[in-house]
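Hi R.,

Quick one: here's the Malate dehydrogenase sequence you asked about.
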Amino acid sequence: MAKDPVRVLVTGAAGQIGYALVPMIARGVMLGADQPVILHMLDIPPAAEALNGVKMELVDAAFPLLKGVVATTDAVEACTGVNVAVMVGGFPRKEGMERKDVMSKNVSIYKSQASALEKHAAPNCKVLVVANPANTNALILKEFAPSIPEKNITCLTRLDHNRALGQISERLSVQVSDVKNVIIWGNHSSSQYPDVNHATVATPAGDKPVRELVADDAWLNSEFISTVQQRGAAIIKARKLSSALSAASSACDHIRDWVLGTPEGTFVSMGVYSDGSYNVPAGLIYSFPVTCKNGEWSIVQGLPIDEFSRKKLDLTAEELSEEKALAYSCLT
Ligand SMILES: NC(=O)c1ccc[n+]([C@@H]2O[C@H](COP(=O)([O-])OP(=O)(O)OC[C@H]3O[C@@H](n4cnc5c(N)ncnc54)[C@H](O)[C@@H]3O)[C@@H](O)[C@H]2O)c1
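And here's the predicted structure, written out as tokens:
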């Protein structure tokens, strides 16, 4: 019997990530090839015409799984009945703007969209925040949607995770699908810590540690880390636009694994509400290694953290605490 459609909200759907993301969702990349979907697309009034153009293209693409499209500039209409919400819309930093001004714009967007979701989304709606500052936008959304369980509010660091897998695969000339269990700790910013200490590569002789195969700690502890941290900037330099197809694809990976589960023995990185695991301050949205089962994530516990890593985990937590304070100062 055919499954009931799942309603998926994409905010900022007329933007460049939105344009890459909605066809992936409509093709089953996010929720599975047998899962019908109804897309809810939200953008702001100046983008209404472009949003309607995206809707026209979705109709023209005749996706068999796509059972309906809502394209609107009304947050309440967009949020009504949604089971999954991918929050891509936000206010970008423009030349000459202070950090606080950008934060203040995003705080007000996430505050009002949090209440629209809280009041109108389906029960147990899963939320993924993509728009930057992703961790702090997710935290504001959590604060202003108190009836949405905190475990349902996450932010995207899977793109950074996938970038780390990609760098290891290139360095070792192995298939990216054979590399697993890298970790992104902390903020989706250049303070993040891409960690390969628990990562492995599948070889004909079994799984081998990445550190052993790379056999170059100097590279792993410096260039590898900064390449992953700075990859977003490198894409902007090359494309004159920020990453879009990889962000969209990673957003699909994030939701797919959350809903359908991670493979046995594999963990992925998700920005989630910290419970104090690994001595990360509770009350931040921080990227951890997680496994997912039955639609719920749990933080992988008990991984040994060496001194080098400890400093990096703390540094990115400090940045998130500062962002949190800045965001709260915008509320008063
Ligand atoms: N977490 C990640 O890994 C990651 C990766 C890449 C980009 N990003 C972030 O994702 C966001 C989107 O990137 P993009 O390249 O698609 O940007 P974009 O400027 O092309 O699109 C953003 C869209 O959001 C819309 N928007 C603005 N305010 C809105 C609101 N209040 N409600 C609904 N829509 C609104 C804009 O009109 C625009 O159509 C940016 O904040 C970017 O920094 C995050």
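Residues 11-12, 14-18, 42-44, 47, 88-92, 109, 130-132, 134, 156, 159, 188, 242-244, 247 surround nicotinamide-adenine-dinucleotide (CB under 6 Å).

Cheers,
M.
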